[in-house]
């Protein structure tokens, strides 16, 4: 592949941290953002990986994002809290929120934390994974700026509104589902444009609402489910908006400043996130949970597959990519490699 270079994770970590520090980010901000981006790059979610470092540096320098936020949490009940991100990058706030939710769930059984005054937080799976690694069933989601048409609609209304769910599996990597409620994430459009590739059919539309495969002509994305069943994706996007924005008092998708398609990199976007932690110990008990999820995932993988297909549990593809990239290095587009001062 001539359009990417393969680099070791530790090299990317050093250069990504340095780039964010150079843009003014404090250690908590730079460390959390780097951790989340490398999670995505390791697992093959390249649209949300280190390629976003240049954007984050731009908004840090522009003033949209506070480089030195004072993150504060306000516990409002045994199982509920709000966390104020102080207009910082969303990664540090999201990691702090899931850590808080997991600690509260050990007491209350179930705990939810809403995040306010935040910004883009990258791959939702990074935070669900952190919760699963802490022994919880964990959910993380965020609303984003409007880029997705409604089912039957011809203009942007919802964001890509990602959600992720993680669950621990004894002696295995967690069960991990990370998905956008749109047909594809917007950052994948940007990535394909950078790489000069065409999009799949039926995932995006141009300014007139007609389908397009050219990333340069994309005006909006389509909701998950496509032309016939897009009401499902639109409904899920609405759920994310309900919990991340409506419930927390954050900016609604269609009222939010766009992430990149704007000249305004000074005004905070005031995004909302939402996370949930469930402690299996407080339901049927850890032993029963461990036995059941081990049986469930084993039977799932053993299920009969169609000819030429394979059956995988959520996360299996990502763990396989992670193992491969540990051997070969992480592919980075040339533009990002140049920004990180890693281009040859």
From TrEMBL:
Alphabetized SUPFAM superfamilies for the sequence: L-sulfolactate dehydrogenase-like
MF (Gene Ontology): oxidoreductase activity
Secretion signal span: none
Keyword Oxidoreductase: yes
One Pfam family matching this protein: Ldh_2
Keyword Phosphoprotein: no
Alphabetically ordered keywords of this record: Oxidoreductase
PANTHER family: MALATE DEHYDROGENASE, OXIDOREDUCTASE-RELATED
Family (UniProt): Belongs to the LDH2/MDH2 oxidoreductase family.
Protein known as: Ldh family oxidoreductase
């Amino acid at each position: 592949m001539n359009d990417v270079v393969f680099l070791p994770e530790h090299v990317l970590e050093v250069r990504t941290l340095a780039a964010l520090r150079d843009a003014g980010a404090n250690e908590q901000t730079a460390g959390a953002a780097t951790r989340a981006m490398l999670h995505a790059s390791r697992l093959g979610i390249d649209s949300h990986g280190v390629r976003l470092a240049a954007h984050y540096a731009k908004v840090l320098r522009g003033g949209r994002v506070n480089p030195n936020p004072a993150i504060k949490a306000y516990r409002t009940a045994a199982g509920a809290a709000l966390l104020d991100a102080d207009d910082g990058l969303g990664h540090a706030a999201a990691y702090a929120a899931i850590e808080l939710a997991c600690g509260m769930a050990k007491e209350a059984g179930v705990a939810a934390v809403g995040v306010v005054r935040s910004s883009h937080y990258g791959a939702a799976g990074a935070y669900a994974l952190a919760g699963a690694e802490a022994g919880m069933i964990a959910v993380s989601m965020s609303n984003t700026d409007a880029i997705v048409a409604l089912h039957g609609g011809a203009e942007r209304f919802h964001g890509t509104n990602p959600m992720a769910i993680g669950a621990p599996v004894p002696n295995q990597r967690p069960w991990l589902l990370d998905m956008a409620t749109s047909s594809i994430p917007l950052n994948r459009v940007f990535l394909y444009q950078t790489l000069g590739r065409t999009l799949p059919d039926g995932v995006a539309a141009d300014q007139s609402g007609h389908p397009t495969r050219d990333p340069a002509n994309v005006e909006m994305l389509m909701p998950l489910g496509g032309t016939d069943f897009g009401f499902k994706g639109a409904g899920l996007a609405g759920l994310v908006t309900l919990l991340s924005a409506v419930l927390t008092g954050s900016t609604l998708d269609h009222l939010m400043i766009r992430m990149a398609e704007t000249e305004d990199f000074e005004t905070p976007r005031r995004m909302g996130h939402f996370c949930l932690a469930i402690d299996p110990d407080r339901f049927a008990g850890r032993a029963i949970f461990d036995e059941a999820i081990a049986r469930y995932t084993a039977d799932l993988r053993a299920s009969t597959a169609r000819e030429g297909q394979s059956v995988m549990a959520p996360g299996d593809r990502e763990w396989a990519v992670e193992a491969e990239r540990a051997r070969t290095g992480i592919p980075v587009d040339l533009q990002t490699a140049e920004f990180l001062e890693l281009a040859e």
